[in-house]
Amino acid sequence: MSLELEPSLCVGGVMHARHWPVAHRFAYRLAWVRLPLSRLGQIGNALFGVERMRLFSFHNRDHGARDGSALLPWIRALLARHGLAEACDGEVVLQTFPRLLGFVFNPVSFWFCHDRRGALRAVLCEVNNTFGERHSYLVAHPDQRPIRSEDRFRSSKVFHVSPFFPVRGEYEFNFVERAGVCSVSIDLFDAGHHQISTRISGRMQPLAAGGLARVAARFPLMTLGVVARIHWQALKLLLKGVRFHRKPLPPLEETTS
């Protein structure tokens, strides 16, 4: 089985660039995990636990229905509601930040939904904001053909993420899973302007205790640092005079497709 469908640790980085109306860019190193949901109960080692306390851990309640229930039936039911059950009849790999010492905040997690031959057919982008709200964007080709690395998908922005942008415009998504590399690009376009470029990219390696130990030594405040960086960059934008937008009510539907 290819590394893309195996439990893996990804070490890489996040880049975020604002292009308009004020230029602002930052990048930092991070690590995350990719977990095949059909084998979730078999994953674990001395430093990583599923539904148990370890230095790094994963809990069902952080995703899906958020009630601790099994994630694979949840995503299968969501895919069926959107007419994607037959196309996405293979492995579902969840890419997300693990808990570190029990704490996690995931700005966005990705559910990579494959067919039985291992081809990527759909991706659920599960977005969280710092107000405790979430919304998901489900992307797939209208004819449900496999997703290639050169493909790009547009989806209307309907969910409040940053107070420095209104809830309007379109996201453009691009996904790459190949040769041990996992990469997601998300761009925001509005009113004729390319406003934001975001990329999270890293190299996959087996989800082993040795790699996790190196991540802990290299990024000791990894998940807490995500929240700290969000607020630090927000302060920088305020000092640059970027307009602040009030948070609207979240969308009634939990998923946009």
Question: Any overview of this molecule?
Answer:
It is a single chain. The chain has 257 residues and is of the alpha+beta class. It has one domain. It contains three helices and 14 strands. The strands form two sheets. It has an eleven-stranded mixed sheet. A three-stranded mixed sheet has the order 3-4-6. The two termini are 30 Å apart. The model has no long low-confidence stretch (mean pLDDT 92). It holds the Pfam family DUF1365. InterPro entries: DUF1365 (IPR010775). This is DUF1365 domain-containing protein. It comes from Niveibacterium umoris.
The percent range for strand residues is 35-45%
User: Strand order of the main beta sheet, please?
Assistant: 10-11-12-13-1-2-5-7-8-9-14
**Helix content, binned percent:** 10-25%
* Structural class determined from secondary elements: alpha+beta
State the domain count: 1
For the termini, the CA-CA separation is 30 Å
Describe the largest sheet: 11 strands, mixed
Q: In a few lines, what is going on in this structure?
A:
This protein has helices at residues 71-81, 209-218, 222-239, and strands spanning 8-18, 24-36, 48-50, 56-58, 92-96, 99-100, 108-114, 120-128, 134-139, 153-156, 170-178, 181-190, 193-206, 255-256.
